[in-house]
UniProtKB/TrEMBL annotation:
The gene is nth. Residues 44-192 form the HhH-GPD domain. InterPro entries: DNA_glycosylase, Endonuclease3_FeS-loop_motif, HhH-GPD_domain, HhH_base_excis_C, HhH_motif, Nth. It catalyses: Hydrolyzes mismatched double-stranded DNA and polynucleotides, releasing free thymine; 2'-deoxyribonucleotide-(2'-deoxyribose 5'-phosphate)-2'-deoxyribonucleotide-DNA = a 3'-end 2'-deoxyribonucleotide-(2,3-dehydro-2,3-deoxyribose 5'-phosphate)-DNA + a 5'-end 5'-phospho-2'-deoxyribonucleoside-DNA + H(+). Its EC number is 4.2.99.18. [4Fe-4S] cluster binds at residues 194, 201, 204, 210. This is Endonuclease III. HAMAP family: Nth (MF_00942). SUPFAM superfamilies: DNA-glycosylase (SSF48150). The lineage of its organism: Archaea, Methanobacteriati, Methanobacteriota, Stenosarchaea group, Halobacteria. One of its GO terms (molecular function) is metal ion binding.
Length: 228
């Protein structure tokens, strides 16, 4: 029987305990060797798999050396370099414009504040949080990607629908020491077990405390729709 625990705080704590045990070494899966590469990889990862991004950036990072190279790149050529990435034309423009701003306003260095990062073209709070956490070792919030969004709703931790609503709730519910790891734990479980369309509820280590478990629930709380 999948039943959430007494409060969202207790529920989240138990979920994290179990996921820590299941995925002890989980971390960011994007490949990068410096802050600019991280920023570009995260911009490219929007609505695209990390696996696909890593394949593209393996060549991209060899071709373009630093923000000036991206800032001065031909728009069409850069877009062509990204053509297997979703929305590659828009992302090429974001990267060129962001790098121009980095060169002109930040002495060629990726900024280290939320305000300066989110002022860059193509960079929202989620992207900025990733860059701060993994590029600058600064944890200001929780990265709420599609996996975190889906699982926190499915597990009855939140009823909020949008990342900007979910993030402050998670920051209230979880200790700051968990903010960074929380994202990777939920991503790992979301990829391996609690997938969007066909979660493996039978073998899920959270099934007994999941109010969306298909073993005894008719509704997916992530979407509010009946299970197919």
């Amino acid at each position: 029987m999948g039943t959430a625990l007494d409060s969202p705080e207790v529920q989240l704590a138990e979920v994290l305990d179990r996921l820590h045990e299941e995925y002890p070494d989980t971390t960011i899966s994007l490949r990068f060797s410096n802050r600019l590469e991280l920023l570009i990889a995260v911009i490219l990862s929007a609505q695209c798999t990390d696996e696909r991004v890593n394949k593209v950036t393996a060549d991209l990072f060899e071709k373009y050396d630093g923000p000036k190279a991206y800032a001065e790149a031909d728009q069409e050529e850069l877009a062509e370099d990204l053509n297997s990435i979703t929305y590659y034309n828009n992302k090429a423009e974001y990267i060129r414009n962001a790098c121009q701003k980095i060169v002109e306003e930040h002495d060629g260095e990726v900024p280290d504040t939320m305000a300066d990062l989110t002022d860059l073209p193509g960079v929202g709070r989620k992207t900025a949080n990733v860059v701060l956490q993994h590029g600058h070792d600064i944890v200001e919030g929780v990265v709420v990607d599609t996996h975190v969004q889906r699982l926190t709703r499915r597990l009855g931790i939140t009823e909020a629908e949008r990342p900007e609503q979910i993030e402050p709730e998670l920051m209230e519910l979880a200790p700051e020491s968990e903010w960074q790891k929380l994202t990777h734990l939920f991503i790992s479980h979301g990829r391996e077990v609690c997938t969007a369309r066909n979660p493996d509820c039978e073998d899920c280590l959270l099934a007994d405390i999941c109010p969306s478990s298909k073993t005894d629930s008719d509704v997916d709380l992530a979407s509010g729709e009946p299970w197919e």
